[in-house]
Amino acid sequence: MIRLILLLLGTQPLRTYWWAFIVLAACSLATGIVFAAHLFDTAIIVVIDIIGIAFVIEGMARLLALAAIGFPNATIPVLKSLGFFALGFITIDVPWDDNIVATITIGGALLIDGLFRLGSAVMIRSERWRRAAVIAVIELIMAGLIWTPWPIPNRHTVPFCLGIILIAASWSLCRLGLQLRRLPSGASVTDLPLFAGPNWHGRSTLPPALAHTSRWDNDNPLTVHIWTPIGSAVDPQPRPVIDRYIAAVDQNGVIMTGHASLSLPPGTYVSLCPANDIDRSSAEFGRLLRAGTENDVPGRFKASLEEESTAWRKPDREINFRHYNAAALQAFLSRYRQVEVYNLTRRNCSSTVVLSLDAAIEGALGEGHPWQTLLALLTDPAMWLLALWRARAEAMTWTPGLVLDYAQTLQHVLERRNNRWLARLWIAKRRFEERRRAQVAEGVATQSQLPTMVSLIATAMIFGLTYGLSAPLLALSLSREGFGEGFIGANAAMHAAGVLAIAPLLPSLAWRAGPKLPIAAALLAAAAVLALFPVMPSIWLWFPLRIALGAASETLFVMSETWLSQLSDERTRTRTMAIYTTALSLGFALGPVILTTVGTDGIAPFLVGGGIALLALLSIAMPWVRAPVFERPAHRNMLRYLWLVPIALGATLINAAVETAGMSFLPLYAMRVGWDEQPATLLLSVLLLGAILMQLPIGWLGDRMDRRRLVIGLGCLSTVGALVWPLVIDTPLLAYPLLFLWGGVFVGIYTVMMALVGSRFQGGDLVSVYTITSVAWGAGAFVGPGTAGAAMDLARHGLPYFAVFACAAFTLLAILRRNSA
User: Fold this and answer.
1) Mean of the per-residue pLDDT values of the chain
2) Whether pTM exceeds 0.85
3) What's the rounded Cα separation, in Å, for the pair 647 and 698?
4) Residue 248: enclosing H or E segment and its boundaries?
5) Averaged over 784-812, what is the pLDDT?
6) Bridge partners for 261 per DSSP
7) Which pLDDT tens digit goes with each residue over 506-552?
8) Among candidates 766, 746, 770, 743, which has minimal Cα distance to 649?
9) pLDDT, tens digit, for every residue of 598-610?
10) Is 770 helix (H, G, I), strand (E, B) or coil?
C-alpha cells in the first residue's frame, strides 16, 4: 500500500517532505527495539491491545469498502476482511491462555503465507524470484520458532514479531527518505529501488511542465477494455474464482485467459499480443507460467480496438478514467514499445495495461495539501482493496480479472476521491436496491438459492449456540458477583426490552435495507457486546448491553426466518422451516455444553461467544449469499397483523409458555413424583432431543398434506399426550419415549404454523408477522413459568395439566378460526 500511495502522490510532494520518512524510521526503530526486547511490559500490552482494535477496525473498513464498491466476485477479500476481525480479537492481550492462541494463529499465518510465496516464486520464477523464495523460507523458519516456546516464550510472541517488523520497516523508511532527497525533479517515483521489479512502470525523466500537468481532468476518457476469461470461452465449464481470475476452460478443453487493452483518443491504443498463437493446452499451461526468458516469444501491438474487436469479439467490460496525465503515458509508451516481446506471465496484455495506467495516473493526487491527501488515502477503504489486488498480482501475475478489479477500485479512488466513503456506501447501496427491485419486477432468473439457505441455517445454529451459551453465562456471572435472583431477573428482562424496542422498526428496516445488512450488523453487534461484558467498569452497564443483545437477537431471528421463508417454495416450505427450527434448537442445546467445557470464569467464555457470532457472520457475509428484495408492508401499524394471524400468535404463545415452563419445572416435577435428580434431568434432555429430531418427519408431512389440518392434528396429539403424562410418569420405560414423541409433536406445531404463515405472506408483511410472533414468544416465555409454578402449587400433576390446558386452548382456536393463519 505504501508504494501505491507514493505513486498517487508523485515526486514533487515526496521530495519536499523527505525528512518525514527519516523521523518515521527513527520512531519505528525505537518502538521495534522496545517490542523485540520486551521492555516496559505494561506499555507493550496496551499497544498490542490498540493494534488488535486497529485490526478489527480494518476488517470493518474492508467489508464496508466491498459493500460500497459492490464487486460480485469478492469471496477472497471477504474472507481476508473477516480474518482481520479474528486476528484483532486474538491479538488483544488475553492472559488466561498465555497467548497460546495468538502464537498458533501468527505461526499459522506465517506458514501459509510462506508456502504461498515459495510456491509462487518457484512456479512463476519472475525477475526477483530468488529473493522472494528467501523471504518465504525466512517466514517458514519464523513460523517454526514461534510455535516452539524457545527461544521466544509464547507470551512474548506477538510483541517480538511486531518488533522485528518495525525494525525492518525502519531500515526501509530511512533508505526511502534518503533516496527521495536525491531524486531529480521530473523523475518518476518508480525509479526508486523500492519499486524495483517488473510490476511497476519505468519512464525517462520528464520536463516539469509535463511531469506536473496543470490540467488533470481531461475531456477524452482513458479506457481500460477487458475480455474476461469466461466471456472469451465457448460454453465454459464453471470453476468459481479460477475462471474469473486465471483461466476458463471451454467445452473442447482449450484454455482461455482473456485479454486486456487500453485506449486514449484520438490515436493511442495499447494491446500487447503474441505475434503467433501460443499453445494453451492443459498439458503446456504449467510450463508457460514460468516468467523466465525461455518463455519469451515475439509480440506485437494491435493497431486499434476496432481491428481487434472485428477479428475476435468486443470486450466484456470497460472502465473509463478522466483524471490522468496524457504526456506521462506517451513518455512511458514510447519507451515500452521499443521491445516487442510477449511473456504469458511477466510481460502480458494485462501487465502492459496496468503499467500504462500507472504511468498515466502517477502524481494524480499530489496537488494541494499532501498530508491531508495522505490521511484521506489511509482512511479510504478502497485504497486497502487496491493494495489487495496489487499484492495478489505481484505474488502471481496480472490477469484480466485482476485488472478489472484493480481498475474499478482505482477509478473509485481517483474520480470519487472528494466524496466521503460513507456517502459512497449509501449511494452504492441505494443503486443496488434499485437494480435488484428492477430485476424482481422484470422476473430476472436468479442463481441457485441453496448456498444462501445453507448459510442461513448454519447462521441460525451458530447464533442459537451463542444465545444458549450467553443466557446462563450472564446469570452465573452475576450470581458469582453476589447478586440475588431479583437483580439477575431484572437484568434478564432487559433482553425482552431490547426485543420490544427494535420490533417496531424491523418491517421498515427490512423493506429499506433488505435482510442481509441487518443480520450482519446484528451478528457484529452481538460479538462486540459479548466481548464488552467482562471489561465494563460497572455492573450497571450490563443493563444497556443486555438491551443491545436482545435487539440484535430479535433482528437476527426475524430477518433470517423471513429470508428463509421467502426463498422456500411450496413443495418444500415446511421441511425447510423444520430444518431451520432443528438447527436453532440444536444451537440452544449445544450452548450449555460448550459452557461446561470452557468454564464460566474470566473473559474466555465471553470471547468464545463473540467468536461464534463472528463465525455466523462469516457464513452470512459470503458474496454468494444473495438477499431478496422485500416489498413494503401493506399495513404500517403492526397491531393490524394481530387480527390477521391469530392462530400463529397462539401457536407461538403456547410454544414459548410450555417450553420455558418445561425447561424450568420438568426435572422438579419428575423429582416430586419420585425420580432421582440425574434421571429427572435426563428426562428433560430426552424431551429436547425429540423436539430436535422429529421436526424433519413433521416437515415432510407438512409438504404432503394440508398444513392447517396437520396443525389441528398435532394440537390434538399434544393435548392427549399431556393428559397421559400422569399415567406413565411412574414408569421410566414409558415416560422416556412418551416425552420424546410429545416434545417433537408439540414443537412441530410452531414449525408447521411458521410454514403456513410463510405461504400466505411475503416480503415486508412476512417481516411484520414474524415480528409480532416473536413478541408473542416473549410474552409466552414471561407468563409460562409463573403460571406453571402456580399450577404445581395447586396440584401434584400441575405441570402436565398446564400443558393440557395450553394445547387444548390452541387446538380449539385453530378449529374455530379455520380461515385465519
Assistant:
1) 75
2) no
3) 18
4) strand 248-249
5) 86
6) 225
7) 877 877 777 888 888 888 888 888 888 887 777 888 888 888 888 88
8) 770
9) 777 777 788 888 8
10) helix
Using the structure block, give the residue that is written with the C-alpha cell 453465562. Answer: 473
Which letter does DSSP use for residue 675 in this model? Answer: -
pLDDT of residue 222: 92
Q: Which H/E stretch holds residue 269? A: strand 268-270
Around 294, how many Cα atoms within 13 Å sit in the side-chain half-sphere? 6
Residues 264-313 have pLDDT tens digits of 988 899 998 888 776 555 555 555 555 556 677 888 888 888 888 888 88
Residues 6 or more apart from 201 whose CB is under 8 A from it? 188, 190, 332, 336, 355, 356, 358, 359, 362
- CA-CA distance, 174 to 167, in Å (whole number)? 11
Please name the amino acid found at residue 317: R
Q: Please list, in sequence order, all residues whose beta carbon lies within 8 angstroms of the beta carbon of residue 363, skipping any fewer than 6 positions away.
A: 8, 9, 10, 11, 12, 211, 212, 325, 328
- What are the CA-CA distances from residue 527 to residues 88, 248, 532, 548, 597 (Å)? 13, 40, 9, 11, 20
Instruction: Extract the C-alpha cell encoding 253.
Output: 478443453
- Contact residues for 495 (Cβ-Cβ < 8 A; gap 6+): 471, 546, 547, 549, 550, 553
In angstroms, rounded to a whole number, what is the distance separating the alpha carbons of residues 601 and 4?
Answer: 47
What are residue 264's DSSP bridge partners? 268
Average pLDDT over residues 205-232: 72
Q: Is 274 helix (H, G, I), strand (E, B) or coil?
A: strand
Least confident of 21-25, 65-69, 116-120, 235-239: 65-69
Please measure the distance between the N-terminal and C-terminal CA atoms of the chain and give it in whole angstroms.
57
Convert 315-335 into a string of H (helix), E (strand) and C (coil): CCEEEEEEECCHHHHHHHHHH
What single-letter DSSP state applies at residue 94?
Answer: -
Q: Is 469 within 8 Å of 613 (Cβ atoms)?
A: no
Cβ-proximal residues to 789 (8 Å cutoff; 6+ apart), any chain:
661, 664, 665
Span 87-133, pLDDT tens digits: 565 555 444 444 555 566 666 767 777 787 777 666 656 656 677 78
Q: How far, in Å, are 211, 281, 373, 553 from residue 6 at the CA level? A: 15, 40, 11, 45
Higher-pLDDT residue of 430 and 388 is 388
Shortest CA distance to 212 belongs to which of 8, 372, 410, 12?
A: 12
The C-alpha atoms of residue 821 and residue 812 are separated, in whole angstroms, by 14
Nearest residue to 742 via CA among 666, 818, 648:
666
pLDDT score of 73: 46
Kindly give, in sequence order, each residue whose CB lies less than 8 Å from that of residue 705, ignoring residues fewer than 6 positions away. none
C-alpha cell at 799: 405441570
Tell which residue, 249, 257, 251, 239, has the closest CA to residue 282.
Answer: 249
Q: Outline where 443-541 has alpha helix (H).
A: 450-480, 485-502, 506-513, 516-532
Tell me the three state secondary structure of residue 151: coil
383-401: average pLDDT: 76
Strands (E) across 332-388 are located at 341-342
Q: What tens digit of pLDDT does each residue of 1-29 get?
A: 778 888 888 877 777 888 888 888 898 88
Q: Which amino acid is it at 45?
A: I
C-beta of residue 697 within 8 angstroms of C-beta of residue 582: no
- CB burial of 197-232 (b: ≥16 within 10 Å; e: otherwise) equals ebbbbebebbeeeebbbeebebeeebbbbbbbbbbb
Q: Rg (Cα) of the chain, in Å, rounded?
A: 32
Q: Could you tell me which residues come within 8 angstroms of residue 435 by beta carbon, excluding any fewer than 6 positions away?
A: none
Residue 42 has pLDDT above 60, yes or no: no
Q: Which amino acid is at 181?
A: R
How many whole angstroms separate alpha carbon 687 and alpha carbon 693? 10
Residue 150, SS3 per DSSP: coil
* DSSP strand pairing (317-323 vs 341-342): unpaired
Helix 707-728 / helix 695-702 crossing angle, nearest 10 deg: 150
What pLDDT, in 10s, does the model give residues 615-672?
888 778 776 677 776 767 666 666 666 666 788 888 888 887 887 777 667 877 888 8
